[in-house]
Write a structure and sequence with these properties.
heterodimer, A: 435 residues, alpha+beta, six-stranded mixed sheet, 36% helix, globular, B: 291 residues, OB fold (Dihydrolipoamide Acetyltransferase, E2P), 11 strands, 14% strand, flat, PEBP (chain A)
Chain lengths: 435, 291
């Protein structure tokens, strides 16, 4: 088919997100990618002997370095044969390949080394500040205060902690190695500096785009009154990324998606994920209803543990309403499937996140009704805080009838047509003159 | 004008007469750079002004019938014109839309509201539609939008697939359309295969079988939804006709089979062609033959 032929060319472009990706995009990691390690060991030692069945005539693929490949063909070979994504931009890789690989500390540029010395002195100073701040916090916490001043003391400790975090960032923000690692996608999100850089990157474009989508498509205020997203979300159906607000084929959205929730502040937390469709046509009311397509609570997320497979969550402790395929009946306007990430409330002391009693919610019955699900009420009842949002859209397509039949949803043979609006009378009935 | 008599008199080599001298002096006076000290009258242009036509801008054109066409609270239906304007004095609010020339139209049946919405824009004036008489605009911030479905649900017709299958001969071929894509029957019958048939698949076998069945016609569904013979079949049509004629001991060719390098055959063929052309010319089609 012509589509398959052209797909090969598309697959070459690794930045293109419209097609199925053979490899995941290089994202933030805590350790070096395992493939990379094996590749390095192979390169240093002898290449492994070919398997017994393989013919020796076939040309062996050349081992490529993901840091220096700079041609399309070489990149393709690296992806196909070694299953490694190239590091950074092509321009950067070409620059690395064409220059001698001297570490920063030995580069023969006097000005550069002077600048590094300044930065290192500054970093040393910041580290000293951090040490002093830590000691101050410890001393202050050990101090006894009157019971009426307890709140004041806690507030002051929190302030000192915040200043400490700021200093941790200031210590690293000017480090060229940090910048380079972040740009190579090797930043460790356990460290505050990389979390800050990732957050800045997200806010520079993708968050703005998300906000535009949810405001233009009126997810806010139709589903929730307002939202200030602080975690980024990435939605994918069967490994295919879906941009915020994109139309998804009903056959693709038949199975539950996987959601990547990336927080930019430290620590583990519990989230509730809910998918609400605010565009369910209701002919009796001549209006639209809400329908909940998915509801699960107590999902643990941390900056390095971000992926949630909505179909594989725990039946007892997490899922309240399992995934219902997204569908829109024929002729009906497109339906917005809005996904919200809600942060669960903290306990009284302010430390631990509270779990939602899933069994009690199921027994209550109010929020196990998919039709007419009121997210505003659910959020208020469980003291949830909306922190993330995502959106995709669905409409009638050739697979919708099958999807609805397989899911046992009635109404697959219903078609919506516009209601006739009676025209105004040509002349006013009760007046003498028309004008 | 003044120069030509001067030059003609200058060519004469006799003593100038008094008339000629006076003429010369007057001519020289004309050539003087500085104007004479005393002028008999001051030269000036007369006032002239285009008094008629559109030169000074049309002061009194026809009215363009702009302005509000529906008052606040009036019932309107979709497409009704609410306000005609030059530029955007008013903006479309809830359930209203702006037309090509900034005209505000109603998008839903309802009642007209003229309002301002400082949350949306501090200066703009909006025209919107509400569904009930007592509703007001703008809605409070963060409130759920008021929307109407404006549609009715109908049972989808499911008989279309049977009607269509009756007309077609080979229903098992995947290249034939067994159902319209938007009709819904049983899942097994309406599934239209989207993957290309491989060499050993049942679909590919069905294609080969169907092509054998329709050998005489050779018509299949080609790319671009064309029912026709494939190009290679069309190209082989002459050869096939000749083979059939040969089997009967005849030939379908006007000439013998072309052999490269057979100059004698070519000479005979050209002779036949020249004779036929001469004959055609002798028939005298129009003036071309006579000339």
């Amino acid at each position: 088919m012509a589509l398959d032929r052209s797909a090969g060319r598309l697959a070459r472009c690794i930045r293109c997100t419209r097609h199925e990706r053979t490899l995941p995009i290089r994202t933030f990691t805590t350790t070096a990618p395992s493939r990379l390690e094996t590749q390095e060991t192979q390169a240093s030692s002898e290449p492994p002997p070919p398997p017994a069945g393989a013919t020796t005539d076939a040309p062996k693929p050349r081992l490529r370095d993901p840091n220096t490949v700079s041609t399309r063909a070489a990149e393709q070979q690296l992806i196909q044969h070694q299953r490694i994504t190239p590091v950074g931009s092509r321009r950067r890789r070409a620059a690395i390949a064409s220059t001698s690989n001297i570490p920063f500390s030995e580069l023969p540029y006097q000005c550069f080394q002077e600048a590094r010395a300044v930065l290192q002195a500054d970093r040393k100073q910041k580290l000293e500040h951090i040490r002093v701040q830590r000691e101050r916090i410890e001393r202050f916490k050990a101090k006894d205060v009157a019971p009426q001043d307890e709140a004041h003391k806690e507030k002051k400790v929190a302030d000192m902690r915040r200043r400490l975090e700021e200093q941790k960032i200031l210590a690293d923000i000017n480090d060229p190695v940090v910048k380079r690692k972040f740009e190579d996608g090797e930043g460790d999100l356990n460290k505050p500096i990389y979390r800050l850089l990732a957050d800045r990157q997200w806010r520079s474009y993708r968050r703005t785009l998300l906000l535009q989508r949810i405001t233009q498509m009126n997810v806010v205020p139709d589903v929730l009154p307002a939202i200030d997203p602080v975690v980024s979300t990435a939605l994918s159906f069967a490994g295919k990324r879906v941009q915020h607000g994109d139309f998804v084929d009903s056959r693709m959205s038949e199975l539950a998606p996987s959601l990547q929730i990336q927080p930019y502040d430290k620590g583990k937390r519990l989230y509730t994920v809910v998918v609400v469709n605010p565009d369910v046509p209701n002919v009796q009311k001549d209006a639209f209803d809400y329908r909940c397509h998915f509801l699960a609570s107590n999902i643990e997320i941390s900056p390095t543990d971000t992926r949630v497979r909505l179909g594989l969550l725990g039946e007892e402790g997490q899922v309240i309403l399992p995934w219902l395929p997204a569908y829109g009946q024929k002729g009906a306007p497109y339906q917005r499937m809005s996904m919200f990430v809600l942060e669960q409330a903290k306990s009284e002391g302010g430390g631990e996140f509270q779990t939602i009693d899933v069994a009690a919610v199921k027994a209550g019955g109010k929020y196990t009704q998919r039709h007419g699900f009121n997210l505003r009420s659910f959020v208020d009842k469980h003291l949830l805080k909306p922190v993330g949002v995502d959106l995709f859209r669905t409409k009638w397509d050739e697979g919708t009838a099958g999807v609805m039949q397989r899911a046992g949803i009635v109404g697959w043979d219903v078609e919506f047509k516009r209601k006739r609006v009676e025209p105004l009378p040509y002349k006013r009935m009760d007046s003498v003159r028309y004008r | 004008m003044a120069i030509s008599p001067l030059s003609s008199s200058a060519r004469v080599a006799r003593a100038p007469s008094t008339a000629t001298l006076s003429f010369l002096s007057s001519a020289l006076r004309d050539l003087r750079v500085s104007p004479p000290a005393v002028s008999s009258f001051a030269q000036s242009r007369n006032a002239s002004h285009q008094a008629q036509g559109r030169a000074n801008g049309a002061k009194d054109g026809a009215g363009k019938r702009l302005g509000a066409k529906k008052t606040g609270g009036e019932y309107v239906i979709p497409g009704n014109i609410l306000f005609k304007q030059r530029g955007t004095h008013w903006f479309p609010g809830d359930h209203a839309f702006m037309g090509r020339d900034h005209t505000i139209h109603a998008g839903v049946p309802g009642y007209v509201r003229y309002y301002r919405d400082p949350d949306r824009h501090p200066k703009r004036k909006y025209i919107g539609i509400v569904f009930e008489k007592d509703q007001i605009l703008p809605q409070p911030a963060h409130a759920v939008r008021r929307r109407r479905l404006g549609m009715l649900a109908y049972q989808m017709p499911t008989t279309a697939s049977e009607e269509l299958t009756d007309d077609l001969v080979a229903t098992d071929s995947p290249t034939t359309i067994s159902a319209l894509p938007n009709t819904i029957g049983l899942q097994s019958t309406t599934a239209i295969s989207t993957t290309p048939p491989t060499a050993n698949s049942a679909a590919a076998k069905a294609i080969r079988r169907s092509s054998r069945i329709m050998e005489g016609l050779g018509v299949t569904l080609r790319p671009g939804y064309q029912y026709r013979q494939p190009n290679h079949e069309i190209g082989q049509a002459a050869e096939r006709k000749e083979a059939a004629a040969q089997a009967k001991g005849k030939t379908s060719r006007a000439y013998d089979e072309y052999k490269p390098g057979d100059r004698f055959a070519a000479w005979r063929k050209s002779g036949v062609r020249i004779a036929r052309n001469n004959e055609r010319r002798a028939m005298g089609r129009g003036k071309k033959g006579k000339k």
